[in-house]
């Protein structure tokens, strides 16, 4: 591995940590000695990276620093292409368009050799079963999640029973056959999962729900036994 690649890997590792991380942990993850790690951190700091900390205390990268030019490994390029192709094929139409645009923006700033790898990626997304209706509602749901707004929905459950609900949406799951909105339901006073193809009508509310979506997501993960990320 070249020194430039090693410095880039160090930046990527630091970006993943939101709390100070020890030099030993960083060195172990990167497979280098502590002496090399300290030298690399000093190099990045000299180039303007806002890395706070010192040996024996831990290190934390503050936001606001990028290493030009934009660089990706071969595997990272393949992951970007494969992920974008999946979103285009299995996401809603607006999200699919956004994935195409994002990939085009990335391609525009890649070095020529990496751009060729992106354009020529042979990783393909296989055809899946048609996804049930729900495309039109997804943009509204995603906006409500981002802005932490309530939704008024008319819903038909698996047994065919219809009800009207006020929900606090905080996550949206994309599965091979269905899309599922995860929300707090005021009617049931608990977390509920709503298939988007069973939403009969949907109205966005101006009212914000009283909790933060990240807090609800964490609580829902704990209730469902899903590991925290």
From TrEMBL:
Pfam families xref list: HTH_11, WYL
Superkingdom of the organism of origin: Bacteria
InterPro entries: CBASS_pafABC_assoc_protein, HTH_11, WH-like_DNA-bd_sf, WH_DNA-bd_sf, WYL_dom
Domain WYL: 138-203
Domain Helix-turn-helix type per the UniProt entry, residue ranges: 6-59
Protein name according to UniProt: YafY family transcriptional regulator
UniProt source species: Azospirillum lipoferum
């Amino acid at each position: 591995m070249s020194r430039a690649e090693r410095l880039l890997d160090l930046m990527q590792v630091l970006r993943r940590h939101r709390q100070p991380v020890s030099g030993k942990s960083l060195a172990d993850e990167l497979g280098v000695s502590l002496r090399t790690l300290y030298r690399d951190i000093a190099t990045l700091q000299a180039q303007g990276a806002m890395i706070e900390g010192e040996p024996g205390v831990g290190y934390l990268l503050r936001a606001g620093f990028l290493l030009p030019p934009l660089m990706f490994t071969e595997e990272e390029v393949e992951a970007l292409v494969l992920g974008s192709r999946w979103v285009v094929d299995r996401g809603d139409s607006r999200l699919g368009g956004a994935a195409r645009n994002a990939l085009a923006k990335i391609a525009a700033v890649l070095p020529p050799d990496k751009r060729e790898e992106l354009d020529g990626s042979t990783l393909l997304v296989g055809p899946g079963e048609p996804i049930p209706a729900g495309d039109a509602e997804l943009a509204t749901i995603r906006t409500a999640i981002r802005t932490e707004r309530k939704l008024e929905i008319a819903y038909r459950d698996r047994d065919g029973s219809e009800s009207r609900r006020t929900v606090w949406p905080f996550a949206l799951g994309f599965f091979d056959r269905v899309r599922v909105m995860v929300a707090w339901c005021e009617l049931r006073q608990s977390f509920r999962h709503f298939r988007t193809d069973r939403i009969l009508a949907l109205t966005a509310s101006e009212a914000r729900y009283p909790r933060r979506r990240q807090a609800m997501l964490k609580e829902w993960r704990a209730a469902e036994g899903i590991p925290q990320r």
